[in-house]
Amino acid sequence: MNTNTAEQAVSETVAPDAQTLVLLCGTLSTFANGLDLAKIEESLTNTPGLRVEIVPDLCGSPKALLETATEGDDRAVLGLCAGGRSGREIDYHARKAGFDPFGVVTVNLGGLCARAHPRDLATNKAIVLLAAAVAKARMFTGSGPEHVKPLLGWSDQKVSRRALFTLPPITYQPVASVRTDRCMSEVGCDLCTTVCPRGALSVVGGRLSVDKTACDACGLCVSECPRGAVELPAASPREFEVELEALLTAPGLPPSQPRAILYVCDRNVQVVEDLAKKGQPYPAAWLPLQVPCTGMISPGWVLQSLVLGAAAVGIVTCGAECKFEQQQRTLDVAGYCHELLALLGISPDALRVLSPTSVADLAEALDLPLGNGVGLDDKAGRHANLREPLATAEALAQLAEASNETAAVVLRHERSPLGDVRIDVSGCTGCESCVRACPTDALACEKEDDGLAITFDPNLCTGCGLCARWCPEDVVQVEHITDLGALSIARTELYRDSQVHCERCGVAFAPASMVRRVEQLLEHGGSSSQAIRRCPSCRGFGISATLAGHVQPDQQKED
Prior knowledge:
single chain, alpha/beta, Alpha-Beta Plaits, 5 domains, four-stranded parallel sheet, 22 helices, disordered N terminus
């Protein structure tokens, strides 16, 4: 995103009449190294649709959200002194104030800024983090009954003594839901079900079903679905896209200072927040982007982050303690990215996989020099699109151009975000099963009166393999591969055949190879074989006429 002001960083993400409330805890001015709250407030005050207020002790009294909100407030962002404050308390007061609690974004400005950096630098970083939080909050589209499940009993979050007696022992957790208008489960797509670590997704009767009791809101299904058919409140790709763009472009940090994106999961963010608390400071250039699980992060997220201007990308894994057992998936993604970056002549330090098991090692890895990124100076007009394979393909092309690499770069890897499809034309009947099964339109069928062609665009292919699975002739092969040469050619023709025209009405109705295959199965002959050369509309007429020739007029009348 090409922006120069905080207003521009968020203006494209929200309707003109929407209003976002930003509350800053007043204690931040004296917490640790402190923040210049007046400067932060000034940086946001002129942003259309924002209302900023400083609350003396917001961290100690989340009820201020209820007391400060007005009827026009649509979303809320809370700048707090520390993490760990009970989400239950914030949710409770957010609901009473009329907010959707999943749309309330909290930012630990104390742990990520005031405690970690000197006052001026901490203030500048806080401005960037708040701009990103506002952008994300404004992109939130709301939640309904299908998006939530109630939980009984107290969680392991910290709560005040008063809240222990006054708040109801119930909270709500987001769960995945399905956009049936986008889902392709009816043609056999089950990509989301294969990655769900809880078995919460299943295809029943051709429809995708969500077991709310099993869903744990990891977000892997959201990242895996190329059609945006699976939704999870506060974890949509579009929310992360605008947050990523704001982190890399919003004013605050000096233009000369590089910025790096640090992907960290909800359950592991405390480790980053506590680095400075444990005497392990790190560069302010590292800007955290929090996700439900780092298993959501695909190679496309990493590559697009670099193209958008990140000097480096870090992924903080949970190691063997990962609640969703996604450690190996993250390592595989990093392995692909490292191999690709090496082929492009880019330093492997551009992507860092960080383990939280040792605070000292984590701080040391973050302290390594960032460099100047991948050398893409003109970032105007570039936007993140973390779901579309085309955006990943474009990022690859831009990285190759910046590295002066030729189109000969080819990488076969199981975690390649792109794939290649081949068809054995000798056995293909042109039935289009592969085209109907493709969730990204990488395969298409182009029909003319005298023929048809199946074409393929590698820029749209994710290598999911659904086309091969649904081919009745078993003539489709899919490979996980990143081939820059193929990406530059774009759509190519994989199969061509003539169309058979109905003997009776003349309309083109089927590929010639399909008709020949059916004739072979019917062993060449008889009235049934004759009917095959007619379109479905005329085929019944042909059979009726044939039968009429063998039935007496009296019998026809009786029938």
